[in-house]
Amino acid sequence: MTVEREQLIERAIERAIGSLAEDQRTMGAGGLFELTYPLVAADVPDASSEEIRAAFASVWGIEPADRGLYEQVLAVCDRHAPGEDKTIQQVLQRAAKDGDVEAALLLALVKNIR
Fold first, then answer.
1. pTM summary value
2. Residue 30: its H or E element
């Protein structure tokens, strides 16, 4: 993907996020990809899902190597209704207590890194 194309997709994402989430660009804003995808695709019709996901990561300052883990954490959080006032760790803890094995593994990973 060319730098010009990446910038075009990133600008479309920033416009879509701004109109839908009023500066909610944190990890706790799960679901923004699904909401903004059609808007971004309208600006850049031939953009692939992968290009848009990569641009989202770039807009949020996520390194390419960390994107898979980030998306995994968001998926777990989205399954457990994160709520605006909850941290990712709180959502993962609640999910693990409710029996979500993936959430428990992510918490164990964080604990081992510290």
1. 0.59
2. none
